[in-house]
Design goal:
Helix content is about 65%, strand content about 0%.
C-alpha cells in the first residue's frame, strides 16, 4: 500500500513561527494561529446566519480556515510588509503559494484530492469565494488579537501593526457587518488574565 504524507506534512504547522520580523513576548506558531482563525471564522459565519439571515456554510468555512496557511509549511511565513511590498512580489508569491498547495495536494490519494482542493485552493466558485472572505476577516482579527496580547504584555513592537490591522479590518465591515459584532462583544476580553475572565463570568451569573 502506498504511503501518503499529507497529514504528516500538515502536522508540521506547529514548527512554523509567525511574525518573524517582530520581537515577540511569546512566539505564535502557524498551528495555533490556524485554530484561532478557524474558531473566529465559525463565529462570524454563525453570527451571519443567526443575526443577518444569511445561509453560510460555517463548517466548510471553518475547514478552509484550518488550512488557509498550510502552504507556508513549504514556503515559510513571508512577512506581510514583504509579501505586499509591490504587485510584482505579491503576484510572484501567489504563484509560489499555488505551487506549494499543489505539492501538498499531491500527497493525498487521488480520489481525495478534489475535495481537499476545494478547501485549500482558490477557485471561481462564488460560494467558496464568499467563505474565503470570511476567513480573511478572521485572519485579520486573529492578527489584531496577537497585537493586543503583545501590547498587554508591555511589548510596544506591535503598536504600528495594531493600527494598520485595525484599519484593514474596518475596511471589511461594510461587506461583513458580523465583524463589528465580534469586535464589540468579544474583542474587549482579549488580553485579560484568566482570573479576570472567570470573575466576569461569576458576575454575569
Amino acid at each position: 500500500m502506498t504511503d501518503y504524507h499529507f497529514f504528516a506534512t500538515v502536522s508540521r504547522m506547529k514548527y512554523i513561527n509567525r511574525w518573524a520580523l517582530m520581537r515577540n513576548s511569546r512566539l505564535e506558531n502557524l498551528s495555533e494561529h490556524s485554530l484561532e482563525v478557524a474558531m473566529i471564522t465559525h463565529a462570524l459565519c454563525t453570527i451571519g446566519n443567526v443575526r443577518y439571515g444569511k445561509h453560510l456554510n460555517s463548517e466548510k468555512a471553518c475547514l478552509m480556515a484550518i488550512y488557509h496557511d498550510a502552504s507556508e509549511i513549504i514556503t515559510g511565513d513571508l512577512p506581510t510588509p514583504v509579501k505586499y511590498y509591490s504587485e510584482e512580489i505579491k503576484d510572484a508569491y501567489k504563484t509560489v503559494e499555488a505551487v506549494a498547495e499543489d505539492q501538498l495536494l499531491n500527497q493525498l490519494p487521488e480520489d481525495l484530492r478534489p475535495y481537499y482542493a476545494s478547501i485549500i485552493k482558490e477557485d471561481d466558485d462564488s460560494d467558496n469565494q464568499l467563505l474565503r472572505r470570511y476567513v480573511k476577516a478572521a485572519d485579520k482579527l486573529s492578527a489584531l488579537i496577537k497585537c493586543i496580547e503583545e501590547e498587554h504584555a508591555g511589548n510596544t513592537e506591535f503598536k504600528t501593526a495594531a493600527v494598520s490591522t485595525r484599519n484593514s479590518i474596518m475596511e471589511m465591515v461594510e461587506e461583513i457587518p458580523e465583524i463589528q459584532d465580534f469586535i464589540l462583544e468579544f474583542l474587549p476580553s482579549y488580553g485579560s488574565t484568566l482570573d479576570e475572565l472567570l470573575s466576569r463570568e461569576e458576575t454575569a451569573l
